[in-house]
Write the structure tokens for this entry.
Amino acid sequence: MDLIKGLFSFLFKTILVLTAFTGIGLVVAYFVVKKDVEEIQEFTERIRLEMEE
């Protein structure tokens, strides 16, 4: 019985850690992509303004 409890505890902790790392990874990826999108928008805005002149 102790073996089963230990196994479930190990699986639970592993899933918890993986979920935490996945969440952190998603937050980092979101900010990187958001920054890239903002840079692309600024670039296209500059090109559009230059073409209007």
Remarks:
- Residues 44 and 50 are 10 Å apart (CA to CA).
- The two ends are 78 Å apart (CA to CA).
- The mean pLDDT is 93.
